[in-house]
């Protein structure tokens, strides 16, 4: 039975496994970036990311430094995957009913509001007020990687809870980026972009999907968002919501058709010939066509993109953005550093822990089976690991001040490290007995 259980890993366990391994890659990428940025070869590190790449024609220019191709381009794919995960969870996952969604929802709400309040209370500089969104994010890859270090001390239900509230947390961060970190909007370009999106939503409603149409529409919408003033990564999320979760062909119809195709392949067998007959080749092509028509586009894209995002895009983002030089020409703003670190550590701990507890005591939500409030508090502390999304928001908040960006990154690193360490220790203490 154990062998069968290991072979039949659930989709949730696969997701957790990939994200956990991705967290290890993030650790490595972050360490390498910090070492290189503070080495005698730091100038090479900086010049690589500032190298401009793009195209320029009469009337149109799309040329950016390499770091912006990563932050605006590749991260749009990251946000697209987040959008797919959010849609899946809302339709068929851990957030598809009020009973399932209520507990992680209140946990995420506390993890968004309280860190922001901490930042605003501690901030005493009008120039850094735009950084209020930085401590509201939780990095799911890092946190799951830390949870994996605890092995079977931590029940799967606790990992599912962390995944669910982190996805709600990501949705909150996406909304904040779209509403508060976009400026100088070109409404004509936005009108064109949303016209295309509405068309894609109509196709999704009628369960019509073509990867070629989707890819072309995605590129156009991304460029329109880029030129309109809204951060182009938001295009990734909005496009993800246009991916249908199912097509017109259901499993029953596909199974019947599969039996017919298999029957025709057997009928066309030629034992004397080792190669396929023309009829068999046609039926195999027919089978491929029917397989594409029955697959869930959302599930297929999520499956295909997850490894690329987890093992290439996110580590590359970390490698490009985490390289803070401590010998920088910009003096670090230590007030901002410690404000962000405290907001991540205490804000997340208090916000998630308190609102989780109150939501159950006031009967707004139910505590899921398999763990108690002590472990929830351990997760609340661990959620202070902000990293990927926090650095992303810091780049947007202080886009014109490199000194504040460096200070914010140092604060994120300190807050994430302290949260990760204390969260790990608390969960180790609160989960003394191994889960069988």
Brief characterization of the structure:
The chain has 436 residues and is mostly helical. The protein has 17 helices and two strands.
| Count of all domains | 2
Sheet with the most strands, sense and barrel status? 2 strands, antiparallel
Helices, by number, come to 17
Count of distinct strands: 2
Q: Runs with pLDDT <50, length 5+? A: 1-9
CATH class of the largest domain: Mainly Alpha
Instruction: List the quaternary state of the chains.
Output: single chain
Report the principal-axis shape. globular
Rg calc: 24 Å
Q: What is the CATH-assigned architecture of the largest domain?
A: Up-down Bundle
Order of helices and strands: HHHEEHHHHHHHHHHHHHH
Question: How much helical structure, as a percent, in the residues?
Answer: over 70%
CATH topology of the largest domain: Na+/H+ antiporter like fold
**Average pLDDT taken over every residue:** 87
Helices and strands: which structural class? mainly alpha
Find the CATH superfamily of the largest domain. Answer: Na+/H+ antiporter like domain
Strand content: under 5%
Widest beta sheet: strand line-up: 1-2
For the terminal residues, how far apart are their CA atoms? 14 Å
């Amino acid at each position: 039975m154990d062998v069968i259980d290991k072979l039949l890993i659930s989709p949730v366990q696969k997701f957790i496994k990939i994200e956990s391994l991705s967290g290890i890659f993030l650790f490595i990428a972050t360490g390498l970036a910090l070492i290189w940025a503070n080495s005698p070869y730091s100038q090479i590190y900086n010049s690589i990311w500032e190298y401009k790449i793009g195209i320029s024609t009469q009337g149109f220019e799309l040329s950016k430094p390499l770091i912006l191709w990563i932050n605006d381009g590749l991260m749009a794919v990251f946000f697209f995957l987040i959008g797919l995960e959010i849609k899946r969870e809302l339709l068929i996952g851990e957030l598809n009913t009020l009973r399932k969604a209520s507990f992680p929802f209140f946990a995420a709400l506390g993890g968004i509001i309280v860190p922001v309040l901490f930042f605003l209370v501690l901030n005493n500089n009008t120039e850094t007020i735009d950084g209020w969104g930085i401590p509201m994010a939780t990095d799911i890859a890092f946190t799951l990687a830390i949870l994996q270090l605890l092995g079977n001390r931590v029940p799967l239900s606790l990992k599912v809870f962390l995944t669910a509230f982190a996805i709600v947390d990501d949705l909150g961060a996406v909304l904040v980026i779209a509403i508060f970190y976009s400026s100088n909007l070109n409404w004509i370009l936005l009108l064109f972009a949303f016209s295309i999106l509405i068309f894609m939503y109509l196709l999704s409603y009628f369960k019509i999907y073509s990867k070629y149409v989707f890819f072309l529409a995605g590129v156009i919408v991304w460029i329109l968002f880029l030129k309109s003033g809204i951060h182009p990564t938001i295009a990734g999320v909005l496009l993800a919501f246009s991916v249908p979760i199912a097509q017109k062909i259901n499993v029953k119809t596909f199974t019947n058709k599969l039996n017919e195709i298999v029957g025709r392949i057997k009928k066309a067998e030629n034992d004397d010939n080792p190669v396929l007959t023309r009829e068999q080749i046609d039926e195999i092509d027919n089978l491929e066509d029917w397989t594409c028509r029955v697959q869930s586009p959302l599930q297929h894209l999520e499956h295909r993109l997850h490894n690329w995002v987890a093992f290439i895009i996110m580590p590359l983002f970390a490698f490009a953005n985490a390289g803070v030089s401590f010998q920088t020409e910009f003096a670090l703003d230590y007030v901002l550093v410690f404000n962000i670190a405290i907001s991540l550590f205490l804000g997340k701990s208090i916000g998630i822990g308190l609102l989780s507890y109150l939501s159950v005591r006031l009967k707004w939500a139910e505590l899921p089976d398999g763990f108690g409030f002590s472990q929830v508090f351990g997760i609340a502390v661990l959620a202070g690991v902000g990293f990927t999304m926090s650095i992303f928001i810091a780049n947007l908040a202080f886009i014109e001040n490199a000194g504040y960006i460096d200070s914010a990154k140092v604060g994120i690193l300190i807050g994430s490290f302290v949260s990760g360490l204390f969260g790990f220790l608390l969960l180790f203490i609160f989960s003394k007995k191994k889960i069988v």
